[in-house]
Amino acid sequence: MIKFTAPEDRIVRAYSNGVTEKVTEVTEKVTEEEQQILSLLLEDPAYTYTNLSEKLSISRKTVSVRIKSLKEKGLIKRIGSDTKGYWEILL
Description:
Layout: H1 19-29, H2 32-43, H3 49-56, H4 60-72, E1 76-79, E2 86-89
């Protein structure tokens, strides 16, 4: 005789080793708008505020505020001068 079990009869166990907690911390750190800037900086670390504002179709001031936020969170750092430098991503 074959015994069939319905999906409701199955026991599902959830295991967590803390990975989701770390991912949640990172996603809470960065807003969607900041993620867009990070993506562009990964593409080309030499982008200036003007380049970023043109690519994202937002003002330079808005880019400045988001970059400042990313710096305060310790996610990016400027290496070199404003004209010849680049952004280092510290993920």
